[in-house]
Design a protein that fits this description.
Blueprint (H helix, E strand, L loop, with lengths): L1 H24 L15 E5 L9 E4 L10 H11 L6 E5 L9 H13 L4 E4 L8 H9 L4 E4 L17 E3 L1
Parallel strand pairs: 1-3, 1-4, 2-3, 4-5, 5-6
Length: 166
């Protein structure tokens, strides 16, 4: 009887491990090859501190000593094997702030250039109807947005309908 009980316990543990592994894999995204990207990519973020050969940039390179978040995003795409054109829009206004209007300007800038995939690595807890409507009215453009790296929170644009969040 003890041997049978141990077998059931072992089988039960294995089943639980398989379920946990499967659940964890549902939350993991693997970027494996260039076929994941087909055509131009767009990034709306802060400024860049470097110039890149394959980046069409709307803004000014800041020549700062430290790398910006935007530089990290461009490097991530390059390191993932992406070699096509990247359209980059700096959403910082004259007061060095990002506003809903500068984001909308960036989305329109991307649309005018035919960019169909746009990454918005910006987050706020404030819902904006104009941005939500723009996304809803431009279904041919896929928006990717991240949640805050620092805390579990309500984050827009990641929480807008029709946005791929990560």
């Amino acid at each position: 009887m003890k041997k049978l009980s141990r077998r059931y316990i072992c089988v039960g543990c294995i089943v639980i491990l398989i379920i946990l592994f499967y659940a964890a894999m549902q939350k993991v995204v693997f970027v494996t090859n260039r076929e994941f990207y087909n055509g131009a990519m767009g990034i709306i973020d802060t400024s860049l501190t470097e110039q890149y050969d394959n980046v069409i940039f709307s803004g000014k390179v800041t020549n700062d000593n430290s790398r910006s978040h935007g530089d990290s995003l461009v490097s991530f795409l390059r390191d993932s094997g992406y070699n096509d054109v990247i359209y980059y829009y700096s959403a910082i206004n004259e007061e060095n702030k990002i506003t809903s209007q500068t984001i909308l300007n960036g989305l329109e800038w991307m649309k005018e250039r035919g960019v169909k995939r746009i990454n918005l690595s910006l987050s706020t807890c404030v819902y904006n109807q104009d941005i939500a409507s723009w996304i809803k009215n431009n279904q041919d453009i896929q928006i990717y947005a991240s949640y805050s790296n620092l805390k579990n929170s309500i984050d827009y644009p990641a929480m807008y309908e029709d946005v791929v969040d990560f």
